[in-house]
Specification:
This protein is about 15% helix and about 30% strand. Strands 1, 2, 14, 15, 18, 19, 20 and 21 form an eight-stranded mixed β-sheet that branches. An eight-stranded mixed β-sheet has the order 4-22-3-7-8-9-10-13. The protein starts with a strand and ends with a strand. The chain binds fe (ii) ion (FE2). The site of fe (ii) ion has 8 residues, from helix 2.
Length: about 325
C-alpha cells in the first residue's frame, strides 16, 4: 500500500463479481460486458440459489501484465448472504488480499467477521477512521430516531492476521492499480448527504456527514476511469469529480455501485445526476444496491448502450 502522490497505474482488465446486491435474476443473459452465473449444472438446474439482500459486496480482480490482485469491497448486510453466495459461486476467498469498506453502515459490513474467519491471512482492512464512530442515528420527519448498530470496533478486529489501515485521504493498493478515495470532497451543491443523519458528540446531536464514505477508482488502459461506489453518501457525482481531481484524469469509462437515489429525499436529484453523467459520457453504467428502482429505470432509458442491469453473481469485465 502506498500513500499518494504516487500515480494510479493503468490496469489491463478488471473483473467485478457481485457477491451481494439488492437484486437477483437467474434468467438474465450475457452481454459484452457482463457474464451471468450458471443456474444449471449439466442437465439439471441447481438445487440451491444465489440470494439477494439489501446490501452490497463486490469481489474485484485487477490484471496488469502477469500481475493479478483481488480485493473485496464491502461485505453485505446479513451474515448469511455473502458466505452462501461465495460457496455457491465456488469462489476461493483465500484470493482476497484486502477488504475495503465503503463506510460503516450495516448493509456493507454484515459478513465482515464471517469472511475474516474464513481467510487464513494476512489480510489488510482498509477503512476510513470515521467508520469507527458510534453512536450514529437517523432522525425521521416525525422526530423519531433509530440508532445504527455498532458494526465495527478496533477491539473486535484485533485479529493477528488482520492489518487495519485507516485512511482519511486517498491511498493506493494492489501495486498502485486501485485507489481508495478516502473522504470525498463535496462540491456539487445538489448532493446534500443523507437527510436526518446524526451523530452524538459530547451528549449533543450533530449532523452526521458520513465522512467515512469512500469509493474505489481504477485507471483502465486506453479507456479511462472506473469509479466504484458503495452507497455514495457523498453523492455519486461528487465521487466522480473527486476521482478526477485525485487522478488528474477526466475520461470516465465506467461508473458502478450504489448511487443512493432512492426515496422521496433523493428522487428529486435523479435528473440532475443523469445530466451530470451525460456530460461525462461513461460507456458503462451499473447502478446497484441503494440506487433505487426509479433511478435504475431512468438510467436504462437515458443510457441504453451503457446501462447494465446488475444481479447477484454477475461478473462485469472491463478491458
Ligand atoms: Fe448501503
Amino acid at each position: 500500500m502506498n500513500h499518494l502522490p504516487d500515480t494510479l497505474k493503468e490496469v489491463d482488465r478488471v473483473e467485478i463479481v457481485t457477491l451481494i446486491d439488492n437484486y437477483v435474476d437467474v434468467l438474465l443473459t450475457d452481454t459484452d460486458v457482463v457474464t451471468r452465473p450458471p443456474h444449471a449444472a449439466g442437465e439439471e438446474f441447481l438445487r440451491d440459489t444465489l440470494v439477494a439482500e439489501h446490501g452490497l459486496s463486490l469481489l474485484i480482480t485487477v490484471y496488469r501484465g502477469p500481475k493479478t490482485h483481488t480485493i473485496l469491497f464491502d461485505t453485505g448486510y446479513s451474515q448469511i448472504g455473502v458466505p452462501h453466495n461465495i460457496a455457491l459461486l465456488g469462489i476461493q476467498i483465500q484470493r482476497i488480499e484486502a477488504i475495503v469498506l465503503s463506510h460503516a453502515h450495516m448493509d456493507h459490513t454484515g459478513s465482515l467477521h464471517k469472511i475474516l474467519d474464513g481467510i487464513q491471512g494476512p489480510v489488510t482492512l482498509v477503512v476510513h477512521p470515521g467508520a469507527f464512530y458510534y453512536p450514529r442515528y437517523i432522525e425521521q420527519d416525525d422526530g423519531k430516531r433509530q440508532r445504527f448498530p455498532r458494526t465495527l470496533s478496533r477491539e473486535d478486529l484485533a485479529y493477528e492476521k488482520v492489518k487495519i489501515l485507516e485512511n482519511e485521504n486517498a491511498i493506493l493498493m494492489a501495486e498502485n492499480g486501485i485507489m481508495v478515495t478516502g473522504e470525498v470532497e463535496r462540491t456539487t451543491g445538489f448532493e446534500k448527504g443523507l437527510p436526518g443523519a446524526l451523530m452524538e458528540k459530547e451528549g449533543e446531536m450533530k449532523p452526521d456527514p458520513i465522512s467515512d464514505d469512500q469509493a474505489l477508482v481504477l485507471n483502465l488502459k486506453e479507456k479511462g476511469l472506473v469509479v466504484i461506489s458503495g452507497c455514495s453518501h457523498s453523492g455519486i457525482i461528487n465521487t466522480i469529480f473527486h476521482a478526477q481531481k485525485l487522478t488528474g484524469l477526466t475520461k470516465v469509462h465506467a461508473v458502478l455501485g450504489g448511487f443512493h437515489l432512492t426515496g422521496p429525499a433523493f428522487e428529486p436529484i435523479i435528473e440532475k445526476t443523469i445530466s451530470e453523467l451525460k456530460n461525462m459520457g461513461p460507456e458503462v453504467i451499473v447502478p446497484m444496491h441503494c440506487t433505487g428502482w426509479k433511478a435504475i429505470q431512468r438510467l436504462d432509458q437515458e443510457f441504453p448502450s451503457a446501462f447494465v442491469l446488475n444481479s447477484v453473481g454477475s461478473k462485469i469485465t472491463l478491458a
